[in-house]
Every structure is written in structure tokens, then in C-alpha cells.
Amino acid sequence: MTSTVAPSAAPTAGPRARRRSVTVAMCACVLVAQSLVAAMNLAIPKIAASGLHPSAAQLLWIVDTYVLVFAGLLVPAGALGDRFGRKGVLLTGLGVFAAGALLSALAPTLVTLLAGRALSGAGAALLVPATMSVLLHATPPDRRAGAVAAWSTALGIGGMAGNAGGALVLQYLPWQGLFWAYVPLGLALLLWVASAAPRVPRQTAALDLPGSALLVLGAAALLFGIIEGPGLGWTSAAVTGAFALALVVLAVFVRHGLRAAHPVLDPRLFRLPHLRAGALGIAVTFFGMFALFYVNAQFLQYVKGYSPLQTGFAIVPLAFGMMAVTRYGLRWAQRVGEARTVGAGLVLIAAGLLLLSTADAGTPYVRYVVFLLTMSVGAGLAMPCLSHAIVASVPAGRAGMGSGLQGAARELGAALGIAVVGTVLSVRFTSGTGHGAGVADAFTAAAALGYRIAAGVVLVLGVAVVTGLRTGARSGSTGG
């Protein structure tokens, strides 16, 4: 009896175990890459008080450099994987990510730290698109929906994992300890992927290096103007020049995209109202969420007196609220329409930001959680519909570009949210200027203003998002 069962069971159990290992490995990769975006926010108070002596604007660059490079290289990195092999690019990305963390941990100067952050961002951009390609190749068609759902969940909770994991590290170690923790993580994932992941057949893919460079340069110029405006002066030559450069470069990027045979991002796709609204909506959602993440870590430590450990876990309810609502987002949209569902979600994100602007040193944690859950419900309602709007609009032959567009919109929205609210903080409050109730009150007032401005941006741009979704629904425009 035993001899007849074992041979038939082995072939089934083996492939199933390998598929599970690949799925878990790919999910772990994207979770680690996304977690570093949020984990950095917890380290800001320690970096501000360190021997690097960063200014308020430099603190923003420490956070945003990773996100900017990550966002700018996501789309071309997908094409790179198609041409040179997804597994090889994934392994390279993990190695570059770990090398960037090592350089950051050893950084003796601010410039070196920024270089390490940029290097890690490039590694993250290489690995994230490749994980999806490897996952789809390793998963049978009838199981791909579940695998993609697991991958998306890992990406979504990466920020919460970064908060919790970063809290554990920073509670006991200096800020360098955060980067030291990511070095073995990256190397361990590299070894795991090398042994578990299958090789994916290469495809012909054109690399649009000029388009990629223009996209990164335009976004960097825009962020430079926003971040450096308070310190250099909004009318200074450097700041006005940065905004002008951003406009010119992005205009050249659009012109290049219209003329190139295989552009990194085809501007013609934005003629589709649903896609245009979906991309803007994702950027707006992450703008609001990362405005929260940047201020929250400092508010809870400076004003509420929380330890890094308490700070990291204080925001965890946000993840549970988002996961609980996300599964119902598309179902709700089928009943009342995408535009209404997304509109309600963006209003709740703005409402959560406005509620958080009322928080001070005396605000009970239970009330603070209610404010966080208001935002998480909004994000959970909006995100599935916005992602679906892009996926349903992009032609089948450009699915990879649609995926890259979602990632780029997500990370650029996060970078702008951090930049805008951080700029408000730098105008109204400078870290490390003193101690005591007066400083806490000053930070509370600055944070409140930052939250209100972020809420206003979400509401104003939210009108454009809802209008685009309604226009798309009336015209029935999709990419097929």
C-alpha cells in the first residue's frame, strides 16, 4: 500500500512546495523593498540629532531619494528584465539593494548617505517588476489570481512592515542599525531566490534610455523646487530654475514619447479617461498616505513622547483597516459605480488628514486610531477601483507598461506627499531647535498645517479623478 501511494504523491507535493516557495520568496522581496520607504520615517528624529547635522530640506532628500529613483526606474526596469532575463535582473536588484543599504550604514557624510539611498532605490526598481514576472511564470494559470493577490497584499503591507520592523531596530540601535538590518535581509533573499526561482524565457524588449532619463530628471527637478523652496527662497534663481527645468524636461519627455517607437511610457495612453484618472488617483492616494507616514513618526516621538517601538506599532491598525476594506472595494463599485466609490475613498482620506490635524499631546490613542482608520477605509475603497481603471484601460499588449505606470504613480505620489508636507514642516518648524512644551506645540501647529494642506490637495485633485472616471464610464473607453 505504501509503495503505491508514495510515487504518485511525490510528483504532486514537489511542484506544489516549489510553487509555494517561489510565491513566498517573491512576496518577501517586494515587501522588503516597499518597507524601506516607511521605515526611514522612523529614523528621522535620530538622523536629525546625529553628527550629520542635516537641515530640514536634507532630511527630506534622505527620505525621498530612494523613492524618486525607485519610481523613475520602475518602468524601464521591467523592459530590462524582458531583454536580459527576469531572474538575473531580480538577483542583480537584490544585490544592488543590499549594497545600497551597506553604503548607507557606513556613510560618514550626508552625500554618501544620499548615494546609498539612491543605490538601494535602483535595486528596488530592478527587483519589483521582475518578481511579478517570475511569479507568473512559476504559477499555473488556474492559480495565478491567488498568487497575484498575495503579491499585491505583500506590496500593500510593506509600509506597515517597515514601521513595525524599523521600530524594533531603532528602539535599541542608532539610525545606522536600520540599514545594517537590510544588508543580511537582501543577501538572504538573494540566496533564496537563486535556489528557488525558475529562469524565465527572455523576450524582445526595447530599452528607452533617453525617456527614462528624462522622466527621472523631470521628477527630480520638481522635487528640488518643492523641497529647497523654503531654504533658498521661492523666487530664488535656483528654485524658479528648477520648476522651469521640470516643465521643459517633462514637455520634452512627452514629445519624445510621441515620436519614439518603443517609449518607456506612451503619452497617448493618457487620452483614455479611465487610465488618466486611475494614474492620478493612485498618485493622490499615496500622496495623502505618505504625508501621514512622514509626519506621524515625528509627531508621536516629538509630541506624544513615544519611543521608536511604540511609534512603529501605533500605526499598525492602519494596515488592518485597509486590508479589511480592500476586498470589498470592487464589490461596492459594482453597486454604486467606480466614480462614487473612489470619490468616497478620497473624501475619507482627506477627512482623516483633517482629523489628524486636530491631534495634540493630549489626544488619547484610541481617538488617534479612529483618525487612522478613517484614512485606511478611504484607501481601501479607492485603491482597487483605481488599479482596475488602469488595468482595464491598457491594451493587452501593453500590460507591462500599465503595471509600471501604477508603480511609478504610486512612488511619485509618495515622494510628492513627503516633499510637500515636509516642506510645510521646514517652514513652520525646524527639528532640533530645542526641547520642551514650546517646541512640541510648535511642531503640533506645523504638522496640523501640513495635514490641512495635504487634505486640500487630495480634495482638489480628487475632483479631477472622479470627473475622469465618470467621463470614461460614459464613453466606455478602454484599451481593450
| Helix content range | over 70%
**Total DSSP E strands:** 0
**In one word, what is the shape?**
globular
Largest sheet: none
What gyration radius follows from the Cα positions, in whole Å? 22 Å
Name the CATH superfamily classification of the largest domain.
MFS general substrate transporter like domains
Report on this structure.
This protein has helices spanning 2-48, 56-84, 86-106, 110-138, 144-156, 158-172, 176-196, 209-232, 237-259, 273-302, 308-314, 316-336, 338-356, 365-393, 399-428, 437-475. By secondary structure, it is mainly α. Helix 1 (2-48) crosses helix 10 (273-302). The radius of gyration is 22 Å and the shape is globular. Residues 1-13 have low confidence and may be disordered.
